[in-house]
Specification:
By secondary structure, this protein is an alpha/beta fold. The chain is built from 26 helices and 23 strands. The protein folds into five domains: about 130 residues, Response regulator (Rossmann fold, 3-Layer(aba) Sandwich), CATH 3.40.50; about 170 residues, GAF domain (Beta-Lactamase, 2-Layer Sandwich), CATH 3.30.450; about 160 residues, Rossmann fold, CATH 3.40.50; about 70 residues, Helicase, Ruva Protein, domain 3 (Orthogonal Bundle), CATH 1.10.8; about 45 residues. The structure holds adenosine-5'-triphosphate. Adenosine-5'-triphosphate binds next to helix 15 and helix 23. Adenosine-5'-triphosphate (ATP) binds next to helix 15 and helix 23.
């Protein structure tokens, strides 16, 4: 960890925010002994902010529970906005507090009473994460800059370039609808609506008119009557509700595509302004980091737009409203399928993390596809032509673990007749996938930490370490935080691995994926069995969608295999489902997670009503936004059992 040691040599400035005198003092002694400069001890958030303004600290230790009206979590939110790293100190590790605290993105947690070594290791990790964060932000910016330049220089059509841009942005700034629109020249936008992981539909003004049921002149009017965006801004929660009320245009887009947050960057090109608007169906899709990244790209985007605009003028006959396959390349996803929003997010994360050397921690229940995710990351990385070595940490006998992972020299122990290369060395240049990392023995965890930190291993019986270049991907179906709390997993290792977490959702939370997974497994098994692909009856599909899938995708795979062996003719009529009691050990949210049209309609009306604070009729009311008479809305609400609460 050379980087951290050098940084420590520069005497990092640390602020302690802790109202317990003895604990604050102990911490100060530990830090000063380790050559950190403690700039002060604040007893409250107000005091802390004064210290922060006067002497910008490099890192802050924050007690979660502080005297006064504001807690350590309130301070953490402010530190996050100021890009100052912080570590929480807490005696209380209740899950709800931990969840709240985690949302503020701390660099670490220390549970009181703390030991000196816990403090120092957590600090090292914190500085590593801080530097790593800055590094990866710069990497993202560089990749985007270069790629936008590359798109600008290509002699491609306007829509093709936009699709490339959408694909590029999606990895760094997620969106469901991206719109590029000149501000002064009437309403002639080009929008891209995400259909699934790789497909976008081009939406122009005619299409918006068609989908929203308004004519073009009405839309022009809405557009010209809506406030213009002067500055780059993120709109979510309250600010989204306000702009929703004030801007007919935002209401139109939100109602047409089910949008709940957005971010806009006005790109200036001389007198002209061109808005880049990213819309999402998630209410918390965008943050200030996204905005900063986007703002830094303004000049590149201006150049791109002026190039594209010129191309567009020369090509009046562009084809719009066409579903375009954005990525003709093979996607590298190790034959993973899924088109639910949740799996599309997983694919986005994979694509984003694959090119770097960042460690990845994949979490999810057994059989959800964690190993597939690891394979995909490897296949999409520059290491793809080097080995991917899979190690099942739960299956290694304790006494053999070290030799198996790190190798041994000849004669290192009784029975070591020959020198043996360990799994890590075998993966040099490639990736090590540590499956079931939660089951790794404690003494091996220490050695793994060393591989991660110092990038070297030592074979048993050898006194000289071997330098290694491996990327670590780990997976677990256990809750590692619980394992840490129970003393079975090292906190420092957890933080080292948790740099880029990906959670693979259980199948019961993405039942929309069942038809594509079924089709996928049918194709595979038909090939191996040498038979024609059978059809699946509606009844069988309904059975599968209603089942809880405690064994996730692996269980679905087995069920399809069994059903194909027992099928009647060329049709799978019934599915033989294992006799698991429903809800076994798992929380069950709904009988069917795929919603009916009525349920969707009810959710959407409820959402609009909430946005309009319960106002049904008149200007700015839900009926106006939904573009239906108020009487129709009232009868729909009655039919769908919607009770309006004007205080919402
Ligand atoms: N999205 C997917 N598309 C296609 N096949 C999948 C998908 N997800 C999982 N599978 C298949 O389901 C089976 C289980 O997947 P995998 O082994 O990756 O799960 P896992 O989460 O690593 O399981 P475990 O926790 O038991 O190690 C495999 O045969 C895999 O090919």
């Amino acid at each position: 960890m050379e980087l951290e040691k050098n940084e420590i040599d520069k005497k990092k400035k640390i602020l302690i925010v802790e109202d317990q005198f003895i604990e604050a003092h102990d911490l100060q002694l530990i830090l000063e002994k380790a050559q950190y400069e403690v700039i002060g001890i604040a007893r409250s958030v107000v005091q802390a902010l004064t210290f922060i303004d006067e002497e910008k600290p490099d890192l802050v230790f924050v007690d979660i529970f502080l005297k006064g009206t504001e807690t350590g979590i309130d301070l953490a939110k402010k530190l996050h906005e100021k890009h100052i790293g912080f570590i929480f100190l807490s005696a209380n590790s209740s899950r709800s507090v931990l969840e709240e605290a985690k949302k503020t993105q701390p660099y670490g947690f220390i549970v009181k009473p703390f030991r000196e070594q816990d403090v120092l290791i957590t600090l090292e990790i914190a500085f590593y994460r801080h530097n790593h964060g800055i590094e990866s932000q710069m990497q993202q910016e560089n990749i985007l800059r270069e790629s936008i330049d590359a798109i600008s220089c290509q002699p491609v059509k306007w829509e093709q370039a936009l699709l490339q841009l959408a694909r590029l942005f999606q990895t760094y700034i997620p969106f469901d609808y991206l719109q590029l629109e000149p501000v002064h020249n009437g309403y002639s936008p080009t929008g891209l609506l995400r259909k699934d992981f790789e497909n976008y539909e081009i939406i122009d003004a005619d299409k918006i008119a068609k989908i929203s049921g308004k004519n073009k002149s009405e839309i022009d009017e809405i557009q010209s009557g809506s406030p213009k965006h002067e500055f780059p801004k993120v709109y979510y929660d309250q600010s989204f509700r306000e702009i929703f009320q004030n801007s007919g245009f935002v209401r139109l887009i939100a109602a047409t595509f089910g949008i709940r947050s957005f971010m806009v960057l006005p790109v200036r090109m001389g007198e002209d302004v061109f808005n880049f608007s990213f819309f999402s169906r998630n209410s918390d899709a965008y943050n200030n980091e996204h905005l900063q990244l986007l703002t830094k790209l303004e000049s590149k985007l201006a150049k791109l737009v002026s190039n594209l605009h010129n191309t567009k003028k020369k090509q009046p006959n562009i084809i719009t409203n066409k579903k375009v396959d954005i990525d003709q390349m093979s996607n590298g996803f190790s034959s993973m399928v899924g088109n639910s929003q949740k799996m599309i997010s997983v694919f986005d994360y994979i694509k984003r993390v694959a090119p770097s050397d960042t460690s990845v921690l994949i979490m999810g229940e057994s059989g959800t596809g964690k190993e597939k995710v690891a394979q995909s990351i490897h296949n999409l990385s520059p290491r793809k032509n080097k080995p991917l070595v899979v190690i099942n940490c739960g299956a290694i006998p304790n006494n053999l673990a070290e030799s198996l992972l790190f190798g041994h020299e000849k004669g290192a122990f009784t029975g070591a007749f020959e020198k043996r290369i360990g799994k890590f060395e075998a993966a040099d240049g490639g990736t090590v996938f540590l499956d079931e990392i939660g089951e790794m023995p404690m003494d091996i965890q220490v050695k793994l930490l060393r591989v991660l930190q110092e990038k070297e291993i030592e074979r048993i019986g050898s006194s000289s370490p071997v330098k290694l270049n491996v990327r670590i991907i780990a997976a677990t179906n256990r809750n590692l935080e619980d394992e840490v709390a129970a003393g079975r997993f090292r906190l420092d290792l957890y933080y080292r691995l948790h740099v880029f977490p990906i959670t693979v959702p259980p199948l019961r939370e993405r039942r929309e994926d069942i038809p594509v997974l079924v089709a996928h497994f049918i194709t595979i098994f038909s090939k191996t069995l040498g038979i024609d692909e059978p059809a699946v009856s509606d009844h069988a599909l309904t059975q599968m969608k209603a089942y809880d899938w405690p064994g996730n995708v692996r269980e679905l795979e087995h069920v399809i295999h069994r059903s194909m062996l027992m099928k009647d003719g060329n049709l799978i009529k019934d599915i033989i489902l294992p006799n698991f009691p429903k809800n076994q050990g798992e929380e069950k949210t709904q009988e069917f997670s795929i919603k009916t049209i009525h349920e969707n309609e009810r959710d959407y009306i409820n959402y609009i009503l909430k946005t309009c604070r319960g106002k049904v009729s008149g200007a700015g009311g839900a009926a106006e936004i939904l573009n239906i008479p108020a009487s129709t809305l009232y009868s729909k609400m009655k039919k769908l059992g919607i009770k309006n609460n004007p205080l919402l």
